């Protein structure tokens, strides 16, 4: 099941994948951008819990981003 609209475009997905999976090694078992996008979608679509915090960030162009953070897994 898809919970979000995904990344804005392929470049944004590539940048996030590189930042979090290649450079940051935050997800060492994630082998592709598609797998990373699926995990991101699941995380953003799952219910909030005791350790998952969420806020909205408004961009200069009027759009907004939903930001989530898991304080246990960081």
Structural commentary:
With 74 residues, this protein is of the alpha+beta class. The chain has helices at residues 10-23, 33-45; strands at residues 52-58, 64-70. A two-stranded antiparallel sheet has the order 1-2. A hairpin with a 5-residue loop joins strand 1 and strand 2. The two termini are 24 Å apart. The mean pLDDT is 91.
Provide the β-strand percentage band.
Answer: 15-25%
What's the shape?
A: globular
- Whole-number average pLDDT? 91
Rg result: 13 Å
The number of helical elements comes to: 2
Structural class: alpha+beta
Question: What is the count of distinct domains?
Answer: 1
Short overview:
The chain has 74 residues and is an alpha+beta fold. The protein has one domain.
How is the topology of this model organized?
Elements lengths: L9 H14 L9 H13 L6 E7 L5 E7 L4
Antiparallel strand pairs: 1-2
Highlighted features:
globular, single chain, two-stranded antiparallel ribbon, 2 helices, alpha+beta, 74 residues
């Amino acid at each position: 099941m898809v919970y979000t609209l995904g990344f804005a475009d392929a470049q944004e997905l590539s940048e996030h994948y590189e930042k979090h999976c290649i450079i940051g090694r935050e997800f060492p078992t994630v082998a592709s951008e598609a797998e990373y996008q699926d995990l991101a979608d699941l995380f953003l679509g799952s219910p909030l819990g005791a350790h998952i915090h969420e806020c909205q960030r408004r961009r200069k162009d009027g759009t907004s981003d939903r930001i989530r953070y898991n304080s246990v897994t960081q």
